[in-house]
């Protein structure tokens, strides 16, 4: 009887504990691009993860960029081991690229490519929240 009670308590605790957030979830600071940088909030969107521009900055400080509130990271599907694949929007040229992300701790390596991966650009983002 005691084993059943302990097992029932263990199951209840496991079900009551909040699910651990995925490593990609949170707020990230981009690298500078065209003199500006941003904070991007990444959260679940359906079966994938999406990132929205929540704050933008230039040389003089915070400002309201035209793309504020837009999805910059789109439909990033987990591939395992901190890797994701989806699409990335670059506000400075208003283009959408095939995207790959690798998350390691508080750093995110983001890569956007065109022409089947022949031409790519990358940035390293830092988790701020």
The share of residues in helices is 10-25%
CA radius of gyration is: 19 Å
Element-by-element helix/strand order: HEEEEEEEEE
Lateral strand order in the biggest sheet: 1-2-3-5-6-7-8-9
Q: How many angstroms separate the termini?
A: 45 Å
CATH domain fold name: Lipocalin
- Annotated CATH architecture: Beta Barrel
Largest sheet: 8 strands, antiparallel, barrel
Overall morphology: globular
- Label the structural class: mainly beta
**Unreliable runs:** 5-18
Number of helices: 1
- Give the count of structural domains: 1
Instruction: Please report the total strand number as a whole number.
Output: 9
Mean pLDDT, to the nearest integer, reads 86
Strand content: over 45%
CATH class: Mainly Beta
SSE map:
Layout: H1 2-16, E1 26-29, E2 37-45, E3 48-58, E4 61-63, E5 71-80, E6 83-90, E7 95-104, E8 107-114, E9 119-127
Antiparallel strand pairs: 1-2, 1-9, 2-3, 3-4, 3-5, 5-6, 6-7, 7-8, 8-9
């Amino acid at each position: 009887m005691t084993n059943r009670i302990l097992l029932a308590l263990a199951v209840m605790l496991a079900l009551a504990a909040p699910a651990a957030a995925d490593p990609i979830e949170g707020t990230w600071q981009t690298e500078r691009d065209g003199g500006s940088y941003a904070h991007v909030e990444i959260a679940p969107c359906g079966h994938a993860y999406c990132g929205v521009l929540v704050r933008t900055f230039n040389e003089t400080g915070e400002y309201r960029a035209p793309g504020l509130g837009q999805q910059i990271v789109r439909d990033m599907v987990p591939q395992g081991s901190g890797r994701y694949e989806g699409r990335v929007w670059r506000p400075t040229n208003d283009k959408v690229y095939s995207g790959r992300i690798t998350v390691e701790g508080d750093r995110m390596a983001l890569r956007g490519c065109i022409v089947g991966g022949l031409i790519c650009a990358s940035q390293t983002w830092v988790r701020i929240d």
